[in-house]
Request: fold
Amino acid sequence: MSLAVEIENLTFSYNQGKRNAAPTSHGSAEGSVEGSAEVSTESPVLDIPHWSVPQGQKCFIFGASGSGKTSLLNILAGILTPASGTVRVLGEPINQMSARQRDKFRAQHTGYIFQQFNLISYLTAVDNIKLANHFASQQGPKRKVSKKQTIMPLLERLGIPSADWHRPINQLSVGQQQRVGIARAFINQPKLLIADEPTSSLDTAARNNFINLLTQLCANDNSDQQTTLLFVSHDTQLAPHFDHVEALYDFNIAADNCQSDNSTDNNYQGNEHKREHR
Ligand SMILES: Nc1ncnc2c1ncn2[C@@H]1O[C@H](COP(=O)(O)OP(=O)(O)OP(=O)(O)O)[C@@H](O)[C@H]1O
Reply:
């Protein structure tokens, strides 16, 4: 079984030295992973002895606020780097890459749907998506896509009216911006898709519609390899939409203290979804 993600003996804290700058609104990181790790005296945010996700899986990860969900996703995206341990994404040890190599790897292989979308507000929907494709095609073999043949059909598939394709993002509704966020994450046909609480500002119907769109796109009609989906949220009502469900505090020792903070997590009854290999 091929693994999309494999973590061994990972620790991470925000006070582990100058190597881990907080992510910018564009999701880039400053600094390099080269050189020896600095040891923090603070309790780590993440302490993960072992965790893995098979390729093609649609995995839902839940955890209380502050338990480290976004930090974990940022490490998997190569935006943050761990203090220790190994992080393999699609078989590549991204914790051994330089910041530039991680940026390139992310542009080529990883789609990220941010909690706050991180779209460029004065650009149109089409141009936001085009820009993501431009970055990826500059970084390596990803092809440049055509607005007419690829971007506009994708926006149509996501239910965004054509009248809105050329309007600045800040004139679109929140739900429309979230769907543009999906289109941007998918435009380079990523093998790994990371989604950080992307439905937090949607009502129930829009939320279910959003997740259905996401899982349909991950099924990759034109490819034999499904996109692996890692979707994090504190809202366990979303769990039935996914193949597998993980509680962050089950594999992140450092999140144990956050468990009792969130009654939604503690009420979750779907533990039969947990995997054996954790
Ligand atoms: N840039 C930062 N600098 C210092 N500490 C941070 C930073 N970002 C997050 N933290 C701390 O790290 C811990 C984990 O934060 P993280 O954002 O990963 O949690 P989360 O589970 O995604 O939370 P939420 O569900 O509220 O978004 C929290 O205690 C938070 O205060």
